[in-house]
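Throughout this review, each integer encodes one residue's backbone shape. One record appears below.

===
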Amino acid sequence: MHLIQPFTGLHPAAGRAPEIVAPPYDVLSSDEARARAAGKQWSFLHISKPEIDLPAGIDVYSAPVYAKAAENLQRMVEAGVLVRDDVPCYYVYRIVMGGHVQTGLVAAASVADYDKNRIRRHELTRPDKEDDRVRQIEALNAQTGPVLLAYPQAPAVDAILRAATADTPMADALADDGVRHTVWAIRDADSIARLTAAFDAMHALYIADGHHRSAAASRVCAARKAANPQHTGSESYNNFLSVIFPDHELAILDYNRVVVDLNGLTLPQFVERIGSAFTIETVTQQVKPSRHGEVGMYVKNQWYRLVIKPERVPQDPVARLDVSLLSDHLLSPILGIADLRRDKRIDFVGGIRGLAELEKRVNSGEMSVAFAMYPTTMADLMSVADADQIMPPKSTWFEPKLADGLLSHVLD
């Protein structure tokens, strides 16, 4: 078995991508999705967020929701809005957001290599979210949400992808958030063989985003394998839909923290206690951290620059992360927040929203203190995955996001 394989992609018919392209299912609420899809009968949100076509308030994990997704997918195929390639292809996917450009390969990645941790993860998953993705895949008999992967330095792969973008794109869409999504097909046998061989030579791929989707694909594969006495390993359920970018092109933004209260401390007491692990500087402007170990803190209309004391930084790949240093030396011992997954006193703000969002949450009285973080790096992520360890919750925020609807992987 190969690490990746070409597949017969289900994609928008010529010229239809702008009508179809949609944000990923997990970045919009049901109400937001309903508003975004209003008047757009072919928006992929009708498949990824099918509750928008059912009565408001319906349980999004109920059977009618998954049935509606399957019905809407079939409707788009029958209408010729979505079409499927006749032969297996690789696809090149380019995303342009402002001045940022990233170009990757869309492929069917090996579930077996995921199970063996050659496709490496760095986050825990929640059973309820895994169950949701399993039910979605089974209802559609297709994987419609790609897993975002990264490949380590491979100039030969980069060159093949660049060459493919010289051809006419198969799909091109400017999404309503101003991000451009463009797809090309790679159909020639030589390029396909060279890409397959190049990835087979790689020691590992790394999950950047999509841990629940990859875990769900593994579960679907295991169930179908057990139910198929003629299982050969070549069935499409042995792979999962992925978009694989070079690690140096992926952009990780800061994932910031806001906390409801100061755990009963006055501001002077709070600042004094912080000083045991951090140096503290009062500043007159917003603090956007520019290096490892630096944190911006906003409390009571004042910004502070915190810098972790060097002796407090361990060598362990997880413990040395900025998000871990903040948790281990401030959130847990001072603010009493030990469980980032379950504690309702803390919330998280993606860096795409900017530091003004942190000020807004504190100034409104909703939160008492905000922390602006230095982004986790791809090198950090890969080190954690290579060590078979798990990052703290909300450690990475990847931007731009992959679009839904441009390519789906049908399970024959």
In short: The chain has two domains: 4-251+399-410, 255-374.
